[in-house]
């Protein structure tokens, strides 16, 4: 481990680029499953996206900081911030996975999500009456035994470890 003010190198630049691309792929996949695959996210699913929405620009800023040779502490602090965002994402993903497996209760308002914009030719009120929001305790899909939330936990853990390594390892 090194000081947060230690000089940066290609390691920090490559880490920042990898994180920005990796996080964009993860959240882009979630959006793809929603908009192309038709999987409607629940309240907890939507909350798990926030660290990525914040993290991608922060990682891009870290890459810019490393490229333009801004103060090394800034680059390292930005990478550290990405690591903390991924730790938050890991917490949210584990919490959601636990709700899906029935280990603990989910929020009582989990079924309240906005109705889709496409009404299927019906009026808005008819579409709202026919729309059944997803429940947080039912996994929409499991791949190799893990739900979307489970896979987000894996991705968050890996991305977080990469971010902390880039922030704290000497060039």
In short:
Helix content is 63%, strand content 2%. With 171 residues, it is mainly alpha-helical.
Describe the overall structure:
It is a single chain. The protein is mainly alpha-helical and 171 residues long. Helices cover 63% and strands 2% of the residues. The chain has five helices and two strands, in the order H-H-H-H-E-E-H. Strands 1-2 form a two-stranded antiparallel ribbon. A hairpin with a 2-residue loop joins strand 1 and strand 2. It starts with 9 loop residues before the first helix and ends with a helix. The mean pLDDT is 83.
Topology:
Elements lengths: L9 H26 L7 H25 L4 H29 L23 H7 L11 E2 L2 E2 H21 L3
Antiparallel strand pairs: 1-2
Helix pairs in contact: 1-2, 1-3, 1-5, 2-3, 3-5
- Kindly name the structural category: mainly alpha
Bulk shape: elongated
What's the helix-strand series? HHHHEEH
The portion of residues assigned to helices is 55-70%
Number of helical regions: 5
Number of strands: 2
The main pleated sheet reads as:
2 strands, antiparallel
Q: Taking strands numbered 1, 2, ... along the chain, how are they ordered across the largest sheet?
A: 1-2
Mean pLDDT: 83
- Percentage beta strand: under 5%
N→C terminal distance: 11 Å
The rounded Rg comes to 19 Å
Unreliable segments of 5+ consecutive residues: none
């Amino acid at each position: 481990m090194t000081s947060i003010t230690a000089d940066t190198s290609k390691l920090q630049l490559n880490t920042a680029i990898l994180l920005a691309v990796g996080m964009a792929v993860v959240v882009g996949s979630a959006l793809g499953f929603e908009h192309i695959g038709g999987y409607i996210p629940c309240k907890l699913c939507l909350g798990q996206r926030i660290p990525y929405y914040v993290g991608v620009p922060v990682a891009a800023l870290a890459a810019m900081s490393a490229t333009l040779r801004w103060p090394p502490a800034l680059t390292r602090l930005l990478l550290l911030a990405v690591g903390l965002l991924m730790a938050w994402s890991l917490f949210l993903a584990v919490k959601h996975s636990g709700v899906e497996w029935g280990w603990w209760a989910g929020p009582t308002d989990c079924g309240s999500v906005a109705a889709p914009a496409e009404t299927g030719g019906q009026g808005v009120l008819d579409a709202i009456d026919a729309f059944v929001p997803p429940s947080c305790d039912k996994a929409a899909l499991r791949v190799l035994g893990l739900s979307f939330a489970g896979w987000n936990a894996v991705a968050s853990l890996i991305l977080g470890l990469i971010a902390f390594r880039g922030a704290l390892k000497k060039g």
